[in-house]
Design goal:
protein-glutamine glutaminase activity, seven-stranded parallel beta sheet, 2 domains, 21% strand, five-stranded parallel beta sheet, 356 residues, alpha/beta, Rossmann fold, CheB-like, CheY-like_superfamily
């Protein structure tokens, strides 16, 4: 019989503690071993209860959730799922938490928290179970934003060394759990004149603009939240607005973004498969397809279609992935043969572009 995932809930809201306890204890594979109303109590309970996963609210008394998370990831790294509010401030704080090492996050509705949490109990359970299997590493030094002289010089030197044309390739990247930081790592290594990149990261409405702005600060490329009908240009990376799909359509000799408010695919919206299938159809062998860390199997079938169109494909390797669900599913399906460590993904992309 498999061991249950032991969870510690850290939240100052009695309603949230009660709802999460009921949801998680209702699954036979999970046991809530304790609750804490603030990080200082949590610190003692972590030592005593030795949980597998922590759910952590950001805004709590006595110690800020981010400060607690930073200390935890430095001193005793554990899988953490953040509980965040669906606000602009909540989005920015959640992205900071993911940068500090949190595995994933659960969005807490502004109104009727109890009913809101109950409505996606299945997702909460899945994220906690996935977090228990995640590879959590000690916190490393924060990355330097792109606007420093070193970053600009590094990007320019890579670009000069490759001397490639940027108009004949379209790079498509999909990610989920762990992907917010994985995408940052990739984009901060891409030169300013790299081929256009289209991205899908599983992220809710309200988070995508803050996420695009965060990536833009760390990349020599211009990273933006896509708008319907806008031209896809070299040196730019495009993310769908949260809660909507993005497809690539051909318009004569150029590509454009099509924002699609259709139903969820693979239980996700935006979905990687929606983007990848459109890239296979519109770009064919001019594309390059990549799947980074993420739970589930979204993107595997779309990546296979990109490969079948004659384009190169690869995935992030298991050792560097927070969760090897999506990359592993793609390999199992035969959609990608190459597996690349995260810190080499940008280099591999530019090698493939240079070969073209």
């Amino acid at each position: 019989m498999s061991t249950k995932v032991r969870v510690l809930i850290v939240d100052d809201s009695a309603v949230v503690r009660q709802m999460l306890t009921e949801i998680l204890d209702g699954d036979p594979g999970i046991e809530v071993v304790g609750v804490a109303t603030d990080p200082l109590i949590a610190r003692d309970k972590i030592k005593r209860l030795n949980p597998d996963v922590i759910t952590l609210d950001v805004e709590m008394p006595r110690m800020d959730g981010l400060a607690f998370l930073e200390n935890l990831m430095r001193l005793r790294p554990l899988p953490v799922v953040m509980i965040s509010s669906l606000t602009e401030r909540g989005a920015d704080t959640t992205l900071q938490a993911l940068a500090l090492g949190a595995v994933d996050f659960i969005s807490k509705p502004k109104l009727d928290v109890a009913r809101g949490l109950e409505s996606y109990a299945e997702e909460i359970i899945a994220k906690v179970k996935t977090a228990a299997r995640a590879q959590v590493r000690p916190l490393a030094r924060a990355a330097t934003p792109r606007h420093t002289a070193d970053a600009v010089v590094a990007a320019a030197s890579v670009s000069r060394a490759l001397r490639f044309h940027t108009t004949d390739r379209l790079i498509a990247i999909g990610a989920s759990a762990g992907g917010t930081e994985a995408l940052r790592v990739v984009l901060e290594q891409m030169p300013a004149d790299a081929p256009a990149i289209v991205l899908t990261q599983h992220i809710p409405a309200g988070f995508s603009r803050a996420f695009a702005e965060r990536l833009d600060r760390h990349s020599a490329m211009a990273v933006r939240e896509a708008s319907d009908g806008e031209a896809i240009l070299p040196g730019h990376a495009y993310l769908p607005p949260g809660g909507q799909h993005m497809r690539v359509i051909r318009d004569g000799a150029r590509w454009r973004c099509r924002i699609d408010d259709g139903p969820a695919v693979n239980r996700h919206k935006p979905a990687v498969d929606v983007l990848f299938r459109s890239v296979a159809h519109s770009a064919g062998d001019n594309a390059i397809g990549v799947i980074l860390t993420g739970m589930g199997d979204d993107g595997a079938r779309g990546l296979l279609e990109i490969a079948q169109a004659g384009a190169p494909t690869f995935v992030q390797d298991e050792a560097s992935s927070v969760v090897w669900g999506m990359p592993g599913a793609a390999v199992k399906l035969g959609a990608a043969k190459d597996m690349v460590p995260l810190d080499q993904v940008a280099g591999r992309l530019m090698q493939l572009v240079a070969q073209r």
